[in-house]
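Listing S7. Sequence submitted for prediction.
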Amino acid sequence: MLSRRTFTSAGLAWTATGCGLGPGVDRTRLGRSSSDSNLEALAAKEGALRIEATIDATTDPQGLEDLLDSFGQLYPGIALDYHRPPSRELHANFLREATAGLPTADILISSAMDLQFKLVNDGFAQSYETPEKPNLPAWAVWKNQAYAITAEPIVFGYNRALVPPADVPASHDEFADLLRRKPDAYRGKVATYDPERSGTGYLYYTQDLLLSRDTLDLAEALGRLQPKFYVSGAEIIDKLSSGDILLSYNMVSSYMLARQGREPDIGIVFPSDYTLVMSRIALIPRMAAHPAASKLFLNFLLSEQGQLLLARRYMRPIRTGVPMPGTAPPAEVLRPIHFGPSLLANLDEFRRRRVLREWRHTFES
């Protein structure tokens, strides 16, 4: 009998029992790793697992549900409690619970790479060397305390029905050049995350600055055209689909690809000069009440089957050798955001004020 699970998202809760794996999932590949037998016995005694993951509910309503169903079929004795708060809320909730000595989540999964590293740096993560580690790139693992589970490119978006093919920018320089050459065509029709209100937008913009000082030229070109700024990527994609905007900058590819599957007018560009790659970072808190179940789940996330299920949600796998639907950008243009101490600079308030002051200046001028 499969465990009963509670899924929570954006303030809406519902219950679900384990269902089938769904089309395209090969049951014969749902195997355990050699170390799982001991963990499974310990996890069965624990009997529960609380997961906190930042998967945008408005853009991807299903989130990790496929993966949880599959995990439940393998380990039916573990009751799953799954929540989907925004990244800053996930971070704040965890710190509040940890500080108060309350039970915390057993595993945290977040796209806010800087906030996840701060938790590791501040001693909140426990060490665990997953048996899947040999199948991961070296940069995806930080001291066995945090693991990248995806590698998702950051892309440009455009409306295929309304943007002439000759206008579609292939690179950051071409994006800036297009805006300079055709200001009347794109005034008020370009959107991106607001780096002042969106942690995601701030992270991507600061990474662009590290890779190329020409980022300021692009910001200036944007600034002349009354661009639209949003906190929600889903809202940007909605505006792109409706034609209210024509171009979008620094979008998460998984959400764009998911919408493109339903709406072919959504166009995607992997920038040819460089393509940022963000990762969702998983860590097991030091005070997790169900550490064995957490480790079992992390192993499954990084297993071939878990990575295939993430790929079905257009979250590009971190594990080598796992196929991904759709077109892949050339490996030589990929620039993964490095998970390490450099991310702490993003959380320095003095630097943040300086970067945002410079950002605002590009629009005021």
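Caption to Listing S7: primary sequence and predicted structure tokens for the chain studied. The longest helix spans residues 349-364. The chain has a mean pLDDT of 86.
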